[in-house]
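Each lists chain and fold; for instance:
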Amino acid sequence: MTDLNELTEVRALFDDPPAPSAQVVAAARRRMAEDGRSERRPWRLQAGLAGLTAAAAAVTLAVATLGGGGSEPPRPEQPGATENKVGGNNILLAAAAKAEREQVGRYYRTRTVAEPVVYAAPGGYVVARKSESDEWAPRSISDAYVAYHRPLGIGPATGADQAAWRKAGSPRKFRVRTADDPRTITLAISGPGEWETFRTTGAERKRLCKCDVEPWMEREKLASAPGGLERLLFPEKQKQARLGDRPLRIDPANRLLGSYDVLTEAASPKVRAAVFRLLAGQPGITMVDGVRDMRGRTGVALVGRGTTIGGAGGVFDVQLIIDPKTYQVLGKQYVVVTKGGRFPGVQPGAVVERHAVLEAGWTNESPHH
């Protein structure tokens, strides 16, 4: 049974965000409709630099899924992947037990490789804009937040996409359509860029967040009603918000995306353990064995379905991948179920917007990369 103290300590992490402002809505749409003109910093890096926890929550909600009905399309088959109908909850409970034993250090370091933006090229393959980040979030408000980031370039997303690209003559430039936007843009194949360093001092962070302790520590100290984490992170009833004139809901896909953020960001061992426990047995979330992440590592995936905002009603599955031996989060990715919306032109079964966690945990080391 989940300790109610754990729930009351972490409820503030998932307080209902205010209705998204016009600026936040615009940012969310830009995020979905990346125009390819420049390499963007990861959203979490931006939030860390500015200390805008509430804005991050609002954007998460702003890109939540459209309400809708009807029968669900079948889940795409992935080579080597099989549904786990027996041991899924045991894995999550074991992950929770391990998380509770973690020791908090001076910094929480998260190293990731990601392809947060994908495009369908005319030749039937997927092209991704890739990046790498190394984020150091401090335990103390007195220490600096430090993040390193570099673009990894634009190119075919997977080995299969690379083969299709070569079959199409290995074009260096091609025109693609962006999500939620009728325009087409021209992309050029490119390689890795230079590392950039982003640093916010303790004094700057105190001024930005108007607090004397680290925001994640402050949130965990707030008291709330029993069961708050379940209600707010995994709502049983559809919670409505507004993005323009379109009703939104939070569904299994969004529950997994919210959980991924907490499990890979600075949080106490109790918070991480509570999230793992609450993922066990959640309605609409299944577990699949033998799923590969973007680095080729095999794990078990928690799978939840969502529907995109892009206007054409595209359906996708979110996969949160966990190593069944170490219980570390390996990454997240989307599997396209039906075309449209966020992934225009991308064929069903394609694995897109992959994120691989290379390292995540507390450390007493000083920021470096």
Q: What stands out?
A: Residues 1-43, 45-71, 235-245 have pLDDT under 50 and may be disordered. The first strand starts at residue 65 and ends at 66.
